[in-house]
Design a protein that fits this description.
Distance between the termini: 161 Å
Radius of gyration: 39 Å
Number of domains: 2
Oligomer: single chain
Helix content: 10-25%
Strand order of the largest sheet: 4-3-2-1-6-7-8-9-5
Structural class: alpha+beta
Number of helices: 10
Strand content: 25-35%
Length: about 375
């Protein structure tokens, strides 16, 4: 073979090799997604948010930040939000990381069960700042599939937060928190003899009362117990103020007044609809005729001809409701009481002192006088 022909052949083969390499070389790896290993929700975005909305299975919880920085549950009568619950939920969003991009394939995305489970952060004008839709959890491992907004991308996040969509559960149930050391005076109501007032000049002083019986003293443990239950109140449920049970409770209240050392008076009124005994409905006329037909006149005993005594049934007492007021007109509790009727645990009402005797106990006998040196020198009297 001539040298020229050989060189041409080598050149052709080299060109074909280059073409084959270019055609068969693997595609370059996709560029890494900038979201990976980043928080599910960015802290700066959270700080800008004025509203939070959580939706799942047709239920929605809505919270909004107020001008003073506090949050209210707008989906539950605009009651103050439980800050501990809210901050814990936000921490779950900012602590969760995006582990990987699962798919951008619409068909595969549909298999991850993205429905109506959604978390949204918005500004004061309802403009969306951030939102994710949650899909199912992976069959292996932990976390949750998520989608941002309407993007056609599905990620796996290390999110394990439980979405509580009961709006009432997001409200702060705390109605009153008083420290016993701050209370200078307590007025306790009684049906007989009027209220009893116990007071002290300083927190370390013993409680005293102008109605203390002879040879007795105020029972400090009983006052401490009262302050513990009445001074720390949380609601268990709420209802409309015109609810029949709430109205009946107001008509059967007992009111405890607590005065602080800085001269503020907190009034706590507790009440419930009393237990009732009602006569059961009389037997129907048809039932009476049927009963009479089964007995002949000569079989009846004289006592059977007497009218039957009415039977009674007991209607249980209603739930306990509380009404609180503060002599400081700017205290938030005054406005809160206008929104709903607040139900509290029964034991707070039933645990109030029932009789004045519960407030007092026997006083120790006075200590004998200490003998003086002059007394010791006196001879014994014969």
């Amino acid at each position: 073979m001539k040298l020229k022909t050989l060189i041409i052949s080598v050149a052709v083969l080299a060109a074909l090799s280059v073409v084959a390499f270019v055609a068969r070389r693997p595609a370059p790896p996709p560029s890494a997604d900038a979201r990976l290993d980043q928080p599910l929700a960015d802290r700066s975005t959270v700080e800008k948010a004025a509203k939070l909305r959580i939706t799942d299975q047709g239920k929605t919880v809505a919270l909004a930040r107020q001008a003073d920085g506090t949050w209210h549950v707008t989906s539950y009568y605009d009651l103050p939000a439980d800050f501990t619950k809210l901050s814990g939920f936000i921490a779950n969003l900012t602590d969760a990381k995006l582990e990987r991009l699962v798919t951008s394939n619409p068909e595969k995305i549909n298999r991850l069960e993205f429905k109506d489970t959604k978390i949204e952060l918005m500004d004061a004008n309802d403009k969306e700042l951030w939102s994710v839709t949650l899909g199912k959890s992976p069959e292996l491992g932990s976390g949750r599939y998520v989608r941002f907004g309407s993007e056609q991308k599905a990620y796996l996040a290390t999110l394990t937060a439980w979405l509580d969509t009961e709006s009432k559960n997001w409200a702060n149930t705390e109605l009153l928190t008083l420290k016993a050391d701050d209370i200078a005076k307590v007025e306790i109501p009684f049906s007989e003899g009027g209220p009893i007032v116990v007071s002290r000049a300083k927190k370390d002083d013993p409680w005293t009362s102008d109605k203390t019986p002879a040879n007795q003293k105020v029972k400090a443990d009983r006052i401490s117990s009262l302050l513990s239950s009445v001074g720390s109140l949380r609601f268990s449920d709420t209802t409309n103020p015109d609810d029949p049970n709430a109205v009946a409770a107001k008509a059967n209240q007992r009111t405890v007044k607590l005065t602080t050392f800085d001269n503020k008076t907190i009034t706590v009124s507790l009440g419930r609809k009393p237990e009732e005994k009602k006569a059961k409905p009389a037997a129907s006329a048809s039932a009476a005729k049927t009963d009479a037909a089964t007995k002949s006149a000569d079989e009846k005993k004289p006592e059977e001809n007497k009218p039957a005594e009415p039977e009674f049934e007991t209607v249980p007492a209603g739930p306990v409701f509380v009404t609180i007021s503060n002599s400081d007109s700017s205290a938030p509790i005054n406005a809160l009481m206008q929104k709903r009727a607040f139900q509290v645990a029964d034991y707070i009402f039933t645990g109030l002192p029932q009789k004045p005797e519960e407030i007092f106990e026997a006083a120790p006998p006075p200590a004998p006088p200490t003998p003086t040196p002059a007394d010791e020198k006196k001879p014994a009297t014969k």
